Amino acid sequence: MQWVESGGVTLHTDCQGSGPLLVMCHGLITANLATWYFSAAPALARHYRVVLYDLRGHGKSALAPNGYDVETMTRDLAQVIDAYRSERRTTRSEKVALVGHSYGALIALNYALRYPQSVARLALIDAPLPAAHYVYPSLAGIDSLFSLQRLLPAHPQEQLVRGLRQRRRTRERLEFLLLHSSLREDLRAAADVPDAQLKALNISTLCLYGRHSDCAAAGTRLARLLPRGELRWLESDHFIPTRVPMEMTEELLSYFAHGTQEATDYAIHDGSG
Questions:
Q1: What is the pairing mode between strands 2-6 and 9-16?
Q2: 35-92 pLDDT, tens per residue?
Q3: Whole-angstrom distance, CA of residue 219 vs CA of residue 146
Q4: Whose C-alpha in 84, 145, 172, 205 is 20 to 30 A from the C-alpha of 139?
Q5: For the whole model, what pTM was predicted?
Q6: From the CB of residue 210, how many other CB atoms can be counted at a distance below 10 Å?
Q7: Which domains are delineated in the chain?
């Protein structure tokens, strides 16, 4: 476990395995690094050095009153990546593989758009692009504790919470995020990524979507525009990591198995392995 600071916010991280660097970004609200810890991370850690982290305001990371826009959270991701590169005494030229689900996929995508030379492979799991269209409407009406309680029972990742004390802490975090932080406003103001930018992203990208997800059209669009995008479907809704974790893990292993050797070859050639 390592703590990483980003703009005054302390982020909780975890690392497992060895090999090329792979960082996983979870979604918003009730998700945290456990999304990956209990699904795909152990399998990927057989081939990669897998880094998990709690987004700001989530899990064990510090509660932040603002900074839930994609740009700020991309800077958080960059700090996590740099911290683990520094720990291994590698340079910024060491490429990283990225996996993201939901809003975490938008963070991973934005990092790749900002630093394309730094990314080896990218897996976007049900990326809700743009968030203002796919995410904000479901949260727009939450303006009280009563409306917050109505949201929670319908959220499948609430099932991951174990124990009364942990459940209470989780609800306190949700209350802070949805009622006392800028998260909803940041989602409302979230911009789309122009087609031209997506067409220019020459990185191998897996677009893994639920066939029954409200975000399915976003997956079709991404796969059409990304030069090296590949669209794969799972029999699921938006919450792929909790609905079909085994199937998701198999798809990720299949995709990233092709990238392990090329990442290793790069590290050796670069002298950073």
A1: antiparallel
A2: 999 999 999 999 999 999 999 999 999 999 999 999 999 999 999 999 999 877 665 6
A3: 34
A4: 205
A5: 0.90
A6: 22
A7: 2-266 (3.40.50.1820)
